[in-house]
């Protein structure tokens, strides 16, 4: 076992992590369930814990889903093998290890609370792979960057949106298999898979729902904006929309991507009257970047402290942080 190996037998340092060791992979794939892989540490302090779940799909496709549990809040970039093709075997003593390709695909994951879980990647194996792996060990190449500095250009954002834009599906009625209803009685035909993929809240609801429709307590306009974002990753004329309403919607349905999308919009919509409302939302959902912008605005516009929202504020932690920021360096 080397320093960069993540397994239950090794206290791997986060910055040195290079491989996930999944023992007895054949048995795990044949027995659907959840299994621990191992953790990474900074000295003796736990940073991350990796685990996997397995399931069998029609056609004898065996799925291996890899997850990470963040032991503390923070941002990480994780690179993991891009392919599920078993390229070669490494024999170590009497143990045979199956190794996935070294090329990595990267994603940035954020945890706003301790013990938050993120899905990293799903690998799919065939019956032939199962025969090959049997009771052996699977090695998955991995790399971790803790608190990476990410600077994303507009051109990159546009390319990502193009690759993840399901806008055509939104207008394609023939393939829609689910309905959302609003209190007004309006019915929206949508794709159940899109709902489950975009929102953890809706995914949990749909998991326990046998009907082909769902009533949401939401106005028609808000639902239309939500569906537009689900399918296209953007909202047309977003600067004309109520940013507080959109932030509340992002919180209600646990839409991290919408929070990120709204960062720049909020900067342009902050006013003396709504600043405290946005500050409350930023504290509620741990939106640190947004909160810095709000605090700076309030510092530059002290008249915010004369508004009704400030007078009614009863969040002690937010009040303390806000006052510390306003009077920082002035004492």
Automatic annotation (TrEMBL):
Gene3D superfamilies (alphabetical): 1.25.40.420, Potassium Channel Kv1.1, Chain A
PANTHER family associated with the record: SPECKLE-TYPE POZ PROTEIN (PTHR24413)
Name of the protein: TD and POZ domain-containing protein 4
Organism (species): Papilio machaon
PROSITE patterns: BTB
InterPro entries with a match to the protein in the record: BTB/POZ_dom, SKP1/BTB/POZ_sf
Domain BTB stretches: 176-239
């Amino acid at each position: 076992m080397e320093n960069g190996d993540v397994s239950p037998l090794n206290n791997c340092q986060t910055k040195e992590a290079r491989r996930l060791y999944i023992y007895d992979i054949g048995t795990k794939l044949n027995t659907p369930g959840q299994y621990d892989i191992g953790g990474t540490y900074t000295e003796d302090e736990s940073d991350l814990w990796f685990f996997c779940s397995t399931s069998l799909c029609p056609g004898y496709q065996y799925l291996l889903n890899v997850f990470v549990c963040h032991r503390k809040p923070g941002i990480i970039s994780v690179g993991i093998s891009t392919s599920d093709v078993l390229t070669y075997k490494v024999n170590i003593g009497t143990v045979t290890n199956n190794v996935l390709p070294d090329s990595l695909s990267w994603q940035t994951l954020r945890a706003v609370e301790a013990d938050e879980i993120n899905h990293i990647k799903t690998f799919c194996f065939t019956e032939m792979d199962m025969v090959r792996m049997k009771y052996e060990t699977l090695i998955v190449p991995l790399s971790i960057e803790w608190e990476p500095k990410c600077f994303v250009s507009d051109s990159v954002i546009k390319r990502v949106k193009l690759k993840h834009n399901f806008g055509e599906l939104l207008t394609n009625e023939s393939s829609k298999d689910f309905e959302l209803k609003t209190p007004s009685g309006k019915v929206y035909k949508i794709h159940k898979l899109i709902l489950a993929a975009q929102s953890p809240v809706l995914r949990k609801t749909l998991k326990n729902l046998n009907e082909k429709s769902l009533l949401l307590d939401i106005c028609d306009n808000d639902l239309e904006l939500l569906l537009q974002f689900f399918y296209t990753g953007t909202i047309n004329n977003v600067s004309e929309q109520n940013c507080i309403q959109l932030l509340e919607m992002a919180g209600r349905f646990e839409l991290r991507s919408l929070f990120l999308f709204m960062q720049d919009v909020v900067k342009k919509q902050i006013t003396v009257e709504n600043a405290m409302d946005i500050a409350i939302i930023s504290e509620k959902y741990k939106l640190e970047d947004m909160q810095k912008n709000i605090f700076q605005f309030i510092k530059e516009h002290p008249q915010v402290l004369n508004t009704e929202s400030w007078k009614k504020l009863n969040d002690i932690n937010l009040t303390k942080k806000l006052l510390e920021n306003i009077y920082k360096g002035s004492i």
